Amino acid sequence: MRTAFDFSPLYRSTVGFDRLFDMLDQSTQVESMANWPPYNIEKLGEDQYLITMAVAGFSPEEIELTQKEGQLLVIGQKKGSDESKQYLHRGIATRAFKQIFNLADHVKVVGANLENGLLSVELKREVPEALKPRRIEINSGNGMKSLGQDNQRAQIEHGKAA
Question: What average pLDDT score do residues 134-155 get?
Answer without folding.
Answer: 66
